[in-house]
Amino acid sequence: MTIPHTLDDELASDEKRAAFRVNDDAAAEWAITRLSEIRAEQAAKQRFARLESDRVQLWLESELQPLETRAAYFVNLLEDYARRQREDVDRKSVSLPHGKISTRFSQPKFNINDDLFVPWAAENAPHLLRVKQEPSLTALKLHLLIDEHRLVDQETGAVVVGVAVLPPQLSVTIKTEGEKE
Fold first, then answer.
1. Is the sign of the CA dihedral 71, 73, 76, 81 positive or negative?
2. Between 56 and 149, where is the model more confident?
3. pTM higher than 0.85 for the full model?
4. Which residues of the chain form beta strands (DSSP E)?
5. Phi/psi zone of residue 141: left (φ > 0), alpha (ψ -120 to 50 degrees), beta?
6. Three-class SS of residue 109?
7. How many domains does the chain divide into?
8. Would residue 41 count as lying in a domain?
9. Distances from the Cα of 149 to the Cαs of 21, 118, 170, in angstroms?
10. pLDDT-derived band of residue 124, with 50, 70 and 90 as boundaries?
């Protein structure tokens, strides 16, 4: 079989592509070489796009920075006004033609030191702790046997409910010479 250099030379039509099949190492080498060329071209286009994207991002940041500085000035003015309105006249919100300024108190936050709190709660208030229960895959593999597509307890012979055993799947990995391992 003569192997063409480019895919378009031999496999120009969809019919020929559908009929083409790799049947020996020479054809596989040809196919992986073409795949390597395509992946190199994809990588080059991605590098170009990243460079352009970086350039546009830098431009955008330089354009937005002065606007952010100006916006922060007005945000500070309005926050100060809203805080004074809340303190002085207990006004929770100010509705204006071009927007609304609202204030509200957040819920208290807890900064918990687990190393101190958990032992204390375990001894004094266990209801303040939660216990997370989840399957242990390691324990499943050690203590249960696979019987067709189900698990069986080694000691009792009982079928384990809620677990389906899926058969191993064959995977194919293709690495061209330029790709990382």
1. negative
2. 56
3. no
4. 93-96, 99-102, 144-147, 150-153
5. alpha
6. coil
7. 1
8. yes
9. 35, 41, 17
10. very high
